[in-house]
Design a protein that fits this description.
By secondary structure, the protein is mainly alpha-helical. The chain folds into three domains: 92 residues, no CATH class; 128 residues, Flagellar motor switch protein FliG, alpha-alpha superhelical domain (Annexin V, domain 1), CATH 1.10.220.30; 82 residues, Annexin V, domain 1 (Orthogonal Bundle). Helix content is 64%, strand content 0%. The chain contains 20 helices and no strands. The radius of gyration is 22 Å and the shape is flat.
Length: 337
């Protein structure tokens, strides 16, 4: 949690506080039913907890029992209870897909096993598979995980995969079952029964949002060389630093509370005047004056440092959007990302 004892915990921090109150055994039972991304988020939040006031713990417990009390009485271990608990703890973002994945239960098998592996290992598993299999795997992973996997593949392979992912719309159950069987030559388990809506231009854009800046530039150039219209479509759907101008003032203020001064200074060194004014206008007069002075005092900085800082802020923004704390604009999308 923030060093400020008066700050309100985020939804993920509330989940971490709640699980910490359950004890190791019970918290473990809950966590084993979460997806890898959710476990990572909550685990990081748990490791960051410090100086949690008793009042904050009471508030989290009160909010939790208030939210689920009307929907469950006995049966405290059933799916409805778990569903209500996790929605209460993590928010309802992407509920149609996220909650279903969380409630899969049992051992993680087939394609799902890859979500628990580090990117280098996933890249090694798919390196010699058919390009279409590689593209389905990349589309199936979370965008940030997929971006990391691509970083371990050759440039030509990356381009081929991205082009194939952009053309995917859904995968028939028979194909998904066959792909699960291929993965299960190395991992045990069963196969999926339903068609999966994965891939497409939006999927590519989400992956590209997480790709390293240098790789992104090279890959986008290659995509445009292959298909200029596709490159434009991907670029239109990507959320970039400049799109923060479209986030409302409340969202910007919430975002600024999560970003360190050093990162903000570096990021704004590469921002235009409109973006800088957007930030200044959402700070107190004193804070904005100090930030302006720091920007003027800071000498030349490396472009890679500026891009890295902007990427860091975007990661925070996407995390907050996933938690339902802010709404991201830009990219031609009207949805909450």
């Amino acid at each position: 949690m923030s060093a400020d004892p008066n700050s309100k915990p985020t939804s993920v921090e509330k989940a971490a506080i709640f699980l910490m109150t359950l004890g190791e055994e019970e918290a473990g039972k809950v966590l084993k039913n979460l997806g890898p991304k959710e476990v990572q988020k909550i685990g990081l939040a748990m490791s960051s907890l410090s100086n949690v006031q008793r009042e904050a713990v009471d508030d989290v417990l009160d909010e939790f029992f208030s939210a689920v009390g009307s929907q469950t009485g006995l049966g405290m271990g059933n799916d409805d209870y778990i569903r209500n608990m996790l929605i209460s703890a993590l928010g309802e973002d992407k509920a149609n897909t996220l909650v279903d994945r969380i409630l899969l239960g049992g051992n993680t098998t087939g394609l799902d096993t890859l979500k628990w592996m580090d990117a280098r290992s996933v890249a090694a598993v798919i390196r010699y598979e058919h390009p279409q299999i590689q593209s389905i795997v990349v589309a199936y992973l979370d965008a940030d995980h997929a971006a990391d996997v691509l970083s371990y593949l050759d440039d030509k392979v990356r381009l081929d995969i991205i082009m194939r992912v952009s053309k995917l719309e859904s995968v028939l159950p028979e194909a998904l079952s066959e792909l699960n069987s291929i993965m299960e030559k190395q991992f045990s388990g069963g196969s999926g029964r339903q068609a999966a809506n994965i891939g497409g231009v939006k999927c590519v854009a989400e992956i590209m949002n997480h790709v390293d800046t240098a790789v992104e530039a090279t890959l986008m150039e290659s995509i445009r060389d292959e298909n200029e219209e596709l490159g434009t479509s991907i670029q239109d759907l990507m959320f970039v630093f400049d799109n923060l101008k479209e986030v409302d003032d409340t969202g910007i203020q919430a975002l600024l509370r999560e970003v360190s001064s050093e990162v903000l200074i570096l990021a704004l060194k590469g921002a235009d005047e409109e973006m800088q004014e957007k930030i200044f206008s959402n700070m107190s007069k004193r804070a904005s004056e100090l930030l302006r002075d720091d920007l003027e005092a800071r000498g030349p900085v490396r472009l890679s440092d500026v891009e890295g800082a902007q990427k860091e802020i975007l990661v925070i923004a996407r995390r907050m959007a996933d938690a339902g704390e802010i709404m991201l604009g830009g990219g031609g999308s009207e949805e909450m990302i």
